[in-house]
Write a structure and sequence with these properties.
Helix content is 53%, strand content 16%. It is built from four helices and five strands, in the order ααββαβββα. The protein has a five-stranded antiparallel β-sheet, with helices on both faces.
Length: 245
């Protein structure tokens, strides 16, 4: 019985073929690994874009919610004020409206004259009486209020003492408090300021800065309207500031 043996030349060709095949397989494997890495990178990038889009959506929704609530607060105040021409009544209503909106905060409203001097015109207390707050309000009127801009934007302070360069002795009511302050402004004209403050242990009501800014804008609008009508009628500006405790 005869047997066939591969010649040396045949064996060499077979080994060469195997080496070529191995090299091809290694090349295919490298390409597959590279493609898998690229696919994973693209997947991670897509996930990051989705997360970013989701975050952007959340931010946009929160901004819309804040603007909506601020607009509702402003509309409610306009409805309460109607066409009232009494400045004392207007400030009392606005103070009570803010007290209800930003509880447990305390509320102070200043009016300013043509020289830029600020005086407290209304105060509403949740936890701090006006008598206790008086010294701090005077300092705020001289320092914080005079630095407000003429845009309806609120400034938020997690440490209310940072609002002034020289706090009252012991920090007054600013010590241990957080605050939001906004101008009473209409069409670029400044009429005063509104402040809400509360203990740092208490969290702000949702959208509190936007609400305070919108109330400040409504008050600026109403004061401008009343001033214009008072000037036209030649009547006197009411002088007795209301207090609501």
């Amino acid at each position: 019985m005869s047997s066939r043996r591969n010649s040396p030349s045949t064996a060499r060709v077979t080994l060469a073929d195997l080496r070529v095949r191995c090299e091809r397989l290694e090349s295919v494997l490298r390409q597959a690994l590279s493609s898998r890495s690229a696919a994973r990178a693209e997947r991670d990038s897509a996930r990051a874009r989705l997360r970013s889009a989701g975050d952007d959506f959340v931010v946009a929704f929160e901004a819309i919610d804040a603007r909506t609530e601020a607009a509702v607060a402003a509309a409610e105040l306009r409805g309460l004020l109607c066409n009232d021409l009494d400045i004392d009544t207007m400030l009392t209503v606005a103070t009570e409206h803010l007290l209800a909106r930003v509880r447990p905060a305390n509320v102070a409203i200043w009016l300013c004259n043509s020289r830029g001097d600020y005086a407290v015109a209304a105060y509403g207390a949740n936890s701090v009486s006006r008598a206790r707050a008086e010294a701090s309000l005077g300092v705020l009127g001289r320092e914080a209020c005079t630095h407000l801009g003429n845009e309806p934007v609120a400034s938020v302070f997690d440490n209310a003492a940072e609002m002034v360069s020289v706090p009252p002795p012991g920090g007054g009511v600013l010590a241990g408090s957080r605050a939001i302050i906004a101008p009473l402004v209409f069409r670029g004209e400044l009429f005063g300021a509104v402040l809400v403050f509360q203990p740092v242990s208490e969290a702000w009501q949702p959208n509190a800065p936007e609400i305070v800014a919108s109330i400040g804008a409504v008050l600026g609008e109403q004061i401008e309207r009343i001033t214009r009508i008072v000037v036209q009628r030649g009547t006197e500006w009411p002088s007795t500031p209301p207090e609501h405790d």
